[in-house]
Fold:
Amino acid sequence: MIKPIYGMIAEFDNPSDLVRAARAAREKGYRKLDAYTPFPVEELSDALHLHKNRLPLIVLIGGICGGLVGYLLQYYVTVVYFPINIAGRPLHSWPAYIIITFELTILFAAISTVLGLLALCGLPTPYHPVFNVPRFALASRNRFFLCIEATDPLFDRDGTSSFLETLEPREVSEVAN
Amino acid sequence: MPEEQQVIDKPESREIIAPGYTFGTVTDQIATVVLTKKTPLFWFGGFGVGLALLFGFLLAVAVLFARGVGIWGLRTPVMWGFAITNFVWWIGIGHAGTLISAILLLLNQAWRNSINRFAEAMTLFAVACAGMFPVLHLGRPWLAYWLFPYPNTMGVQPNFRSPLVWDVFAVSTYATVSLMFWYVGLMPDLATLRDRTNNRAARFIYGIMAMGWRGSARHWSVYETASLLLAGIATPLVLSVHTVVSFDFTIAIVPGWHSTFFPPYFVAGAIYSGFAMVLALAIPLRSVYGLQGLITDRHLDNSAKVMLATGLIVGYAYILEAFSAWYGGNVYEQSIFWNRMTGPYRYFYWSLVFCNIVAPNVLWFKRVRGTPALLFISSMVVLVGMWLERFVIIVSSLAQDFLPSSWSVFQATRWDWLTYFGTIGLFLFLFFLFIRLLPMISIFEVRTLLPQAKIEEEVQG
Amino acid sequence: MTAQALDFNLSTELKNDLKQWRTRALGVGIAGAVLCLIGLITNPFQFYRSYLWSYLLVLGLSLGPLAWLMLQYVTGGAWGVVIRRPCEAAARTIWLVALMFLPIVIGIRNLYPWSRAKDVAASAMLQHKQPYLNVQFFLIRAVVYFAGWWFLSWFFNRWSAVEDRDGGEVAHRKMAFLAGPGILFWGFTVTFMSIDWVLSLAPEWFSTIFGMLFIASQMLTSMAFLITLMVLLSFRRPMSEVLTPRHLHDLGKFLLALVMVWAYFSFSQFLIIWAGNLPEEIPWYLTRLNGGWQYVALALVFGHFALPFALLLSRDLKRNFKLLAGIAIFILCIRCVDLYWIVAPDFRKASFGLSWMDFTAPMGLIGIWLWYFLTQLEKRPLMPSQDPLLEEALAHGRE
Structure:
């Protein structure tokens, strides 16, 4: 029994080749795919059939919560908890409360964006198998990687490796687990 | 490789990135500034100046804590002197960073990609400097937390009808969101540094900060959404911050302050001084680090145009201010305006008119916009002008308000000046640390500007 | 498809459409004008009041596009190429709009308190403002505004025609050269126009942001109109081959931004005056927040900000031709409400009210203006074939 591996990874020179390879792999029937690039490549979302993410919804909910917290905080403090006549303004001075309501909406929305980003990406992830590939350090410089994971039903070490070779990569390597 | 180097050295002026770059050379050129072992001499110079001024700041603050705000020139009726002037000035400078990173992203202005990083850093440090002043001005800064609403034994709460409390929320939100925006933008580049460095400690630290970013397509897709959302959130925020700062004045009914035009006028002025600061930083930086291929003349030209446009809005505000002082028919407004032009602050007033409305008109000329040295000088003029503007608005209105018997002229003390220059030191100190430790240009966003980044595909049937 | 392969002249189907729209517009316009004439005889006071706010709407339809035109030369953005010709046609209507100003000149004493000697004698404030607010200077300023706007409109149309005939570079550079100073002039004149024609209805009141607010409103009105027009044109050639969701998306972003700017300016003005609570400022809002007017104000908060803002946030909606046009038409309607809320309460201080002329006056003015605008639109090809940014604009749409 050979030690189980994470998958096979192919290295490409430019983003066009990677997108072409991703489409080919998808057409071949592979589903457990991921691509690694040094900058966002819009076409990959289409090539890998990535779903629309739920981040906007998270941010919307966060923003609404922030607004509610902001307004209710001021209402509670000035009308219920500490009612005091200041310069003859009404206790419930709604025009003055808009500002803090707005700021807290923004603050909560922004925090939800960042936390949502981390949660949806599963970060922080200090260890990940792809880092075991020595040349993978170039994924943050000028190389483009396509990884077929071992959990894919179609995956078998030799077949997948020779399939990746047909896509004319620079190099194909195994990803240890 | 030598061929590549040659084109990098002689960029075409009209491009937002010089031809001949590859993904590799872009990465190396920006990352090397951080990863090299050799620190250039001028860096020590700049850092040294910053550090020296920072010590001055610490001294001024120590004396302030020991003896109280009386060491500043604050005397009735001018209780807002330098501290609030500097606060407004610094906050304004910060605005250009958010404008470049957020608004220009929403407008698909690709040229922003090579200046957004250091502009955002500038925002953060400017906000840090700005935040010093209201806190120091409190008199008892160690009680600053009283500004926040929390259940306390005294049974009192902040007055939510006061713009000064709005400021607390606006500025702290702004600082938090700017920091998060900046950090999210840094993550992929931190991963690059992690993968490029040979130093174990550096790899560990950058690795922790990068949170294990690996450039997965799934992550990028969420990341792009997050960037757009943060930009959409930061845009109204940045407008609101200087609006709230302007409310500090307009909500008060002091003559010369109570003007409905202040919110957009303050925002325009903020962007005006902010772009001046961007130019004042970018012009020397790009020449000492040889980054003319990434921060091209086109960037300087565009920034100068933004400066001109916002400068004209500020000019519009001055003219309307003068007209409305007369048209409004309020005698206090009229006298405050007359006193500004002819009273004890007339030199300040006329120099700010020169610096803010007369001088920047040279930017109409392409030749001026294309000469970095001239641009550098005009941005300095604008920075001085905008400081004077805040000073004149704040001090002249307070010094001569409703009651002539209590009029008095503000005299800045050496501690006022030391605190002010001290924050410039703090800014320089943080900024030089930043350019030494983090990539000052967003590497991954510059990669997307290269022609190679465009995907060539056969059209699918 | 490249630009050479496209024919930008109006297709026969579109010409037929335009003819039909024109006839209808003229019909509505004449009907409105006749009814207004009856109103002028029976109740002249009400006529001028209804006419003023309707006139301000039509003014925005003509002046706003002029500003969009100049903005696009200044910024060099490809977003504006598709709306260039409608903007030029709208700018060419400026002389008609100047002509439509005449009834206001005739009715000046019915509208503006500062023009009536009796009111001036009773108010020290109005006497103080006499050097600015007097009939002669008012007319001189109006002539200067119209002359300037007419010149700008003539200039940009003339060089645009030259560009079509002789090719791009020189003419484009000329237009870009004047566009910067042109915007400056436009901004100042629209500001002072708003002070003269609107703000001086309540001559004791002043707000420095008013000019800016008016500029934003005019840009919003015109962008809503342009979007509606582009969607209507998109059903027929040549626009059916040019216009893509991407172009509309850009225009929709402007609409969203302007809705936000309008809310920002309006709220800032309100908050500052509310918090200041000064006797010379607050009456303007007291009139507009009492006697039934508060419901109009509430309608503005929702209709002019909350609803369009929430809808326009959606990216899919901004790319949907019919939905976006629906919102644009809604915004045009709510613009009328806003203008009415700004202008009319000074005449109806006691309580909210509407006259039948508040319907016929906009009918007449908009109908006649639209008729003239459509005749102008037909005169030139619908896209500037020699625009240096044309290829970029077409490619931008296809991405």
